[in-house]
Design goal:
With about 525 residues, the protein is of the alpha/beta class. The chain has 15 helices and 24 strands. α11 packs antiparallel against α12.
Length: about 525
């Protein structure tokens, strides 16, 4: 007797949706992925159209902020010839290669918009959902699915902050989502408002084209270069297991302030490192000290041809203002009763399952910003979610989930001084433990001491989450052991990937130290790990 496969509707064919589809197939679920665009890859598809309603979100010269061994899927490393920080074109190709390798494209419906998700008539008994879709503006088709995974991303709607007097400003006002390249800014006076990734990318790139570029930052922020100590990518330094927060803050703060006087460049953060905004840029500080970018505090009000700042200074004769104040997560295709657009009332257990629903048959994947590469976290969410769908993993009682959500929210408030949905990397280990693929140093050491030492001391690559547990990957050990070589292999003419050599005499005592530390550490070694 053949058992009919249960079905899963997946909203979005970006990296979150691709990882969700593969996780479904691993658990013998039948996915249907709906993508509004005519190509997979989500926002990583570059679009020249700059209208505010376009699906485009990336600019022409965008380069990743996280390095090649940290940013991808756990069982599919980026190609060996990938430079440490790939371009968006290389990353988009990686997604297509991933879809080809795991044969996902046959499950993807392109140019298909999800217009409504609702509970099926028999939801109270079965937990099923009806999903209404429309392809190429044709008639709406409604289908019933056993499960739903919302993977529409954290950048669904640009958030445009308002300011007094903004309506009287005679120049052009754009959101950073509309930025593609510096051509429209040639010989213009431009103000960029914001203190995170997009704003810094924009002001840095246009500063060589404008007559003058200005940056307005409300509180100041830390500036991370892509290169960390000794020239290695920054996240290979920051993302380490069992690295005490206070020690990490002390060391890295000294590194950041070694060549930059944050007070002198008017970007002195109002909170300590890892507890406030940051941006990744290799060029902002040089552009500031060369006068290409001038920094001002928060905007107080707009004038007819300029702005006044909170310190009383003004800038006049502005041609363009670019507002880089981020995005709002919006899921207009599903009622707020099921999945709220309000981040403070969304009530997602482990940022994944809405606790107000009777059945755990709806999962939200990646509807948040993260302090590091989002793909490993989204993939782990999906791996856990499908096991919950299959009843291989359970959820705690509702009251316990409420307390967990409250605790996580309080941690974010304590860290940032306000509620800011910026998910920490520690979620990876928590989800891995729930999924059954947590790379326990103790257990690995008993089987493979050399690997245990590498997992403990090397960068926290996603490959470690395929070493053990369900759907482990035979290539995971090699990927972990060769991570250092793989990181820089794309810079060489030939790219031999091999395991770093090491002798057993030093591995055993070092491994013993590893076991002792691991045994006395917290259950989740990254519990207090603040990366950025």
């Amino acid at each position: 007797m053949t058992v009919e496969r249960k079905t899963v509707a997946i909203v979005g064919a970006g990296p979150g949706g691709l990882g969700a589809a593969k996780a479904c197939l691993e658990e013998n679920l039948l996915p249907s992925v709906f993508e509004k665009r005519d190509k997979l890859g989500g926002l990583w598809n570059y679009e020249a159209d700059t209208s505010i309603g376009t699906l485009g979100r990336i600019h022409k010269n965008l380069v990743l902020n996280t390095c090649n061994i940290m940013c991808g899927f756990s069982d599919f490393p980026l190609p060996d010839d990938t430079p440490p920080f790939p371009t968006h074109e290389a990353f988009l190709k990686y997604f297509n290669d991933y879809a080809d390798h795991f044969k996902l494209k046959e499950y993807i419906h392109l140019s298909t918009e999800v217009v409504n998700i609702d509970r099926a008539d028999d939801y109270d008994v079965t937990g099923r959902w009806t999903v209404a879709t429309r392809q190429h503006n044709q008639q709406v088709v409604t289908t019933t699915y056993d499960f739903v995974m919302v993977c529409s991303g954290a950048f669904s709607e640009p958030f445009i902050a308002t300011f007094p007097g903004i309506d009287q400003f005679k120049g052009d006002i754009l959101h950073s989502a509309q930025f593609r390249d510096s051509k429209p800014f040639v010989d213009k006076k431009v103000l960029v408002i914001g203190e995170s990734f997009s704003a810094v990318d924009v002001v840095t790139e246009i500063s060589n084209a404008t007559t003058q570029a200005y940056l307005s930052a409300r509180h100041g922020f830390w500036i991370y270069g892509r290169q960390g100590p000794d020239g290695w990518p920054l996240d290979t330094f920051l993302l380490r297991r069992y690295f005490p927060l206070k020690l990490k803050r002390f060391l890295y703060k000294r590194f950041l302030e070694r060549d930059t006087d944050y007070s002198a460049i008017a970007l002195k953060p109002h909170r300590d490192l890892f507890n406030t905004s940051f941006a990744v840029s290799d060029f902002l500080v040089p552009q500031i000290i060369c006068g290409k970018v001038k920094v001002f505090p928060e905007v107080k009000q707009f004038l007819s041809n300029g702005v006044e700042f909170t310190d009383g200074t003004t800038v006049n004769d502005l041609d363009i203002v670019v507002i880089g104040t981020g995005y709002r997560v919006k899921t207009p295709f599903i009622d707020d009763r099921f999945l709220s657009d309000d981040v403070e009332t969304r009530d997602l257990y482990q940022y994944t399952f809405p606790i107000r629903l009777r059945h755990p048959t709806l999962a939200a994947i990646g509807l948040f910003a993260t302090e590091t590469a989002p793909i490993p976290i989204m993939e782990m969410q999906s791996r856990w979610a499908v096991r919950v769908f299959k009843t291989k993993c359970g959820l705690p009682p509702v009251e316990q989930m409420k307390n967990h959500i409250t605790s996580k929210a309080d941690e974010l408030r304590d860290r940032y001084g306000k509620y800011k949905l910026f998910v920490p990397i520690s979620l990876l280990d928590e989800l891995a433990d729930l999924t059954g693929c947590y790379p326990s140093i103790w257990r690995i050491f008993l089987r493979d001491p050399r690997l245990a030492v590498r997992v403990f001391f090397a960068p926290m690559t996603p490959f470690a989450y395929r070493l053990v547990g369900p759907h482990s990957w035979p290539g995971a050990r090699d990927a972990v052991m060769t991570c250092w070589d793989r990181c820089l292999s794309g810079l060489r003419k030939s790219s031999p990937i091999h395991q770093s050599k090491g002798s057993l005499p030093w591995l055993f005592p070092l491994g013993l130290v590893t076991i002792i530390i691991a045994s006395i550490a917290d259950r989740y070694p990254m519990k207090n790990l603040h990366v950025y």
